[in-house]
């Protein structure tokens, strides 16, 4: 097991409300083929889209699996989306579903949502504006024997269960796909990767199929080649990042499945091994 400072990482409460879907005055979204479309998108409660489902083929745009929450206070929402980590325990603290337990599956930038999985019996009792408390735990996690690897956005308990092996001074991680840097789009250039996500561009279907991207599922681990997420998101030859698929494919140019980063290094000391055993739902 990779040694960490897990016992020093602080667990702290953050909270948000289930956020209603929102549209501008015109409901149309323009696809990368120039086609205006009216589709479901971010927010609310997705009853039939869950962690482990395909991130492709949905009649929707930027679909967020499960429940999407937000805090109406901007600064408090910054804390919610930054301190929440994938795998954190989430508890419904108001409404008919009070007491229901789920877990965080990702943080979606731009719309600034935290995404949470609940089982069906809990989903059916939830309503927009229900309050959900998260035991935020993970930011500040370090790998004690790998000072050149930065960890972010991952619950330490989940991290310990992930399919990661140590070999010859490197971490070998089971992943569903290896993504070339030229396919990373919306969200690149952001000043931090400790919140939100960035998208795999999917307008070039030949490239998508070549790299197996069309097979990705919500919750899959992926390796981002030559992508440095240490102090923002950008290209760096030899850099490696590991992330989790958190939202669906998209119709807009420059967009696609969203990836929340959990590991990154400026050095080639993380490698990916393609495996079917690479989805977070199997380890929570």
Report on the architecture of this protein.
There is one protein chain. The protein is globular and about 50 Å long. The strands form four sheets. A six-stranded antiparallel barrel has the order 1-5-8-7-6-9. Strands 10, 13, 14, 15, 16 and 17 form a six-stranded mixed beta sheet that branches. The protein has 284 residues and is mainly beta. It has four helices and 18 strands. The protein has two domains: 132 residues, Thrombin, subunit H, CATH 2.40.10; 128 residues, tm1086 (SG structure) domain (tm1086 (SG structure) fold, 3-layer Sandwich), CATH 2.102.30.10.
Task: Provide the descriptors you would attach to this structure in a database record.
single chain, 284 residues, mainly beta, 2 domains, six-stranded antiparallel barrel, six-stranded mixed sheet, DUF4438 domain-containing protein
């Amino acid at each position: 097991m990779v040694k960490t400072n897990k016992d020093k990482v602080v667990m702290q409460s953050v909270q948000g409300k289930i956020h209603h879907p929102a549209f501008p005055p015109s409901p149309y979204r323009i696809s990368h083929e120039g086609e205006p479309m009216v589709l479901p998108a971010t927010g609310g409660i997705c009853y039939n889209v869950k962690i482990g489902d395909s991130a492709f083929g949905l009649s929707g745009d930027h679909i967020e699996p499960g429940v999407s929450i937000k805090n109406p206070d901007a600064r408090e929402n910054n804390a919610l989306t930054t301190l929440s980590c994938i795998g954190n325990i989430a508890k419904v603290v108001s409404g008919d579903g009070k007491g229901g337990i789920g877990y965080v599956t990702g943080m979606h930038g731009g719309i600034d949502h935290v995404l949470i999985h609940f089982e069906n019996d809990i989903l059916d009792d939830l309503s927009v504006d229900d309050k959900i408390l998260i035991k935020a735990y993970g930011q500040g996690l370090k790998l004690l024997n790998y000072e050149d690897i930065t960890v972010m956005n991952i619950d330490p308990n989940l991290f310990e269960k992930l399919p990661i092996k140590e070999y010859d001074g490197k971490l070998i991680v089971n992943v569903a796909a290896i993504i070339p840097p030229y396919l990373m789009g919306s969200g690149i250039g952001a000043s931090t990767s400790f919140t939100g996500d960035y998208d795999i561009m999917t307008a070039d279907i030949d490239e998508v199929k070549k790299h197996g991207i069309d097979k990705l599922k919500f919750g899959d681990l992926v390796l981002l080649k030559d992508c440095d997420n240490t102090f923002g998101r950008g290209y760096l030859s030899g850099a490696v990042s590991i992330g989790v698929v958190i939202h669906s494919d998209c119709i807009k140019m420059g967009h696609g499945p969203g990836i929340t980063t959990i590991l990154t290094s400026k050095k080639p000391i993380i490698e990916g091994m393609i495996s079917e055993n690479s989805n977070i739902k199997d380890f929570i």
